[in-house]
Amino acid sequence: MELPLLHLALVGTPNSGKTSLFNALTGSRQKVANYPGVTVERKEGFFVTPLGRQVSVVDLPGTYSLRGRSPDEEITRDFVLGKASGEILPDLVLCVADSTNLRLTIRLLLELKRTGRPMILVLNMFDIASRRGVSVDVNRLAKELGVPVVTSIAVRKGGTADLLALTDEISAKIPAEPSENTWRALSVAELRAAQREADRIIADCVSLPARPDTLTSRIDAVVLHPVGGLIVLAAILFVMFQAVFAWAQPLMELLQSGFDALGDFVHATLPAGLLQSFLQNGVISGVGSVIVFLPQIIIIFLFILLLEDFGYMARAAFLMDRIMGGAGLHGRAFIPLLSSFACAIPGIMATRVIDNKRDRLTTILIAPLMTCSARIPVYTLIISAFIPAKDIGGFINLQGLVMFGLYAAGITSALVVSFLIKFFMLRDYAPAPFMLELPDYKVPRLKSIAIGIYTRAKMFLQRAGTTIFSMMVLIWFLASFPQPPAGTTEPAIDFSLAAIIGKAIAPLLAPVGFNWQIAVALIPGMAAREVAVAALGTVYAIEGGKEAAEQIGQVLATKWSLATALSMLAWYIFAPQCASTLAVIRRETGSWTWMAVTFSYMLVLAYAASLLTYNVAVALGAG
Amino acid sequence: MRREMPLGLAQRGYTGVIQHLSAKDAGSALSDIELESRLIELGFVEGARVEVLHEGLVRRDPIAVRVDNITIAVRRREAMAIIVA
Questions:
Q1: Can you give the pLDDT at residue A210?
Q2: Do A196 and A52 belong together in one domain?
């Protein structure tokens, strides 16, 4: 008889290694979605036990208790209590503990026990604990807690074998009638009593060595030094942005020549006409010009995932707390803002870790000012077309430096906007507390980094295949129809819908130095910023006729003045953000007003910045 | 017997033992019950050994505190609720 799917839930404190256990159990068989009604990420994975039982496992957000003081923690509580809408009560709860640090998890487990769910305590990272001289009397711990206990080493092959065997054993004898749920929110006195009880059990079952993790303290002596730490942080960010620009280059050139070759092949194979133009100019050069940026997006996610896995992100929040506090931001806002460098959408979603509503709103409003990876294509294109690739002082690349400057401009404007929000809107403001665990450093694991990058790259390519592709088809259509009358000598595009629309908007954008081609490109850029590059490519490719295979950058260098190029860069620092970011802001703030506010203030800033840049550049002779 | 003081006033390098929690003295934006609950959840309970490991740049705030065998970052304002000796 086929047994029904077994439902597991992973619960644990933040930094307990829950996610690496999740990755070890499920590999790449993961499904990432949202819980209905909220934007908390729901990660579900699947695996088969040694005895052949099909298992679904959900990685719940980390929490220190079931009180549920943020949307994340409410999900964990409701899920375990079977109150989450549309979710099945888990058959078995895996309470995951960092073996080097049992105090907080054991207290959480004592609370979890009251829910009456069958449970296993998983002592994860047991190898690290053993190496540090922690020894655990597993049998006695299980007896004291009244819960089966198993050790695991999520990051080692076969490290979860005992857990899998125990899952089989327990799932075979789960009673049909579960125990009663006696959970209710703990009072302060009960919480304290629970921690005392946890400490007593640990004292009885675990022998802790006196020496702490010396490697972590040695690294922290440098990394958390009040001045040295900030220098390290700045250096990390600087290397990150140089890498995005320099390391990705060879791969990007490879991809570019691949797409060029494909375009040439289509051009040579198909007869001249609409189909040829559609495939070459619309599909290949359009979608290709976006996919080319995959290496850069992978590199920026690589850095963010590495820093997160290493345990550095919490340190960065510590270093930046008071500095960001000066601009009215909470230290916890640092992580969402840093994620916004990859994409504002996960960044805005990550603001859920900020429990104070005002702090969270401020962070959401400025997150789109962080230079997201979708702007990289625009920056890269313009920088490589207009900024010479010379070295300054022998080791700093001028192009990389301009890129760094653009990022810095984004950050500075975010801080200024945040300061203004605090000053004008949220005056009666008591700073929310900053309390954060600084986990011991861990060597990042290749597998979890690889899975993380794989899911992000897949998302990017899916976007390229759907949103960006459909935008490109639209742009190609607008730029190709209506067809020019026979016998005309002017470029075909001058007769198209795109030219009509572009020329209608162009007067509004003339003061900032944008021509009608840019005006056309900015519209689909609202669907996804990187489309602007592809749209420019299509518009100029169709206009250029025979030299269509030419690189966009070279075309731009001949068609735009330096002042226009700089103005475009300034525009994109603020760039009224993409439709999906606006949708996420609407959903996360639950308000159309805040969405409209974000859109308008960024549009105003973009226009003002471009106006200033263009006019200063023209005055300096770059027009 | 050492004199009792709030952890919020401790210098880097200070080591001591938590005597009791006194949320009403902290002037935190959180309610007393909420602050006390959160401190306990992070392991700040009576009898725990604490050591101030690091201080931030601006007004030596926040502080990184070793509580038994984990490290917690907390602002001095909230640390005023933790009475140590």
A1: 62
A2: yes
- How many domains are contained in chain A? 2
pLDDT given for residue A556 in this prediction:
81
Element (H, E) at A559: helix A552-559
Shortest Cα–Cα distance, A209 to chain B (Å): 10
Q: Among residues 132-151 of chain A, which lie with CB inside 8 Å of chain B?
A: none
Query: Is residue A586 in a domain?
Result: no
Sort out which chain B residues have CB atoms less than 8 A from A433's CB and list them: 28-30, 35, 38, 74-75, 77-78
DSSP A466: I
B56 vs A103, A226, A314: nearest CB: A226
Do A155 and A25 belong to one domain?
yes
Express each pLDDT in A364-393 by its tens digit.
999 999 888 778 778 888 888 888 877 777
A418 domain-assigned: no
Q: Give the mean pLDDT of chain A.
A: 82
- Do A270 and A201 fall into the same domain? no
pLDDT recorded at residue A38? 54
Say whether both A52 and A200 belong to one domain. yes
Q: Select from A196, A318, A436 the Cβ nearest to the Cβ of B56.
A: A318
ipTM of the complex: 0.94
Q: Is position A513 within any domain?
A: yes
CA B5 to chain centroid = 10
A80-94, A124-138, A166-180, A212-226: least confident range: A166-180
* A64 closest CB neighbour out of B41, B68, B75: B41
Taking a contact as any Cβ pair under 8 Å apart, which residues of chain A between 207 and 236 contact chain B? 208, 212, 216-217, 220, 224-227, 229-230
Per-residue pLDDT band at A546 (split at 50, 70, 90): very low
Segment (H or E) for B34: helix B32-41
* Full domain range(s) for residue A31: 6-207
Q: Do A227 and B38 touch (CB under 8 A)?
A: no
What are the beta bridge partners of residue B15?
B51
Cβ atoms of A355 and A73 closer than 8 Å: no
* CB-based burial, A35-62: b 16+ in 10 Å, e otherwise: beebbbbbbbbebebeeebebbbbbbbb
Mean pLDDT on A533-543: 74
User: How do A92-98 and A119-124 pair as beta strands?
Assistant: parallel
Chain B interface test: which of A98, A125, A188, A440 (most B C-beta within 10 Å): A188
Residues of chain B neighbouring A436 (CB-CB closer than 8 A): 72-74
Is A189 inside any structural domain? yes
If asked whether residues A43 and A163 sit together in one domain, one would say: yes
Domain match, A191 and A258 both: no
Handedness of CA A488, A490, A491, A497 (dihedral sign): negative
Reading chain B (85 residues) residue by residue, the pLDDT tens digits are: 678 999 999 999 999 999 999 988 887 777 888 899 999 999 999 989 999 999 988 888 899 999 988 899 999 989 999 999 9
CB spacing of A322 vs B58 below 8 angstroms: yes
Q: Which two tokens stand for residue B35?
A: 């602050």
Query: A560, A576, A592 — which closes off a domain?
Result: A560
For chain B, the domains span 5-84
Indicate whether A266 and A139 sit together in one domain. Answer: no
- Please tell me the CATH code under which domain B5-84 is placed: 2.30.30.90
What does pTM read for this prediction?
0.79
Q: Mutation test of the interface with chain A: which of B15, B30, B38, B40, choosing the one with the most A Cβ atoms within 10 A?
A: B40
Three-state DSSP class for residue A270: coil
The share of chain A scoring above pLDDT 90, in percent, equals 17
pLDDT of residue A106: 93
pLDDT for residue A503: 83
A185 in the same domain as A284 = no
**For position A549, what pLDDT does the model report?**
41
* Nearest-angstrom CA–CA distance, A306 and A442: 10
Out of A536, A560, A584, pick the residue that ends a domain: A560
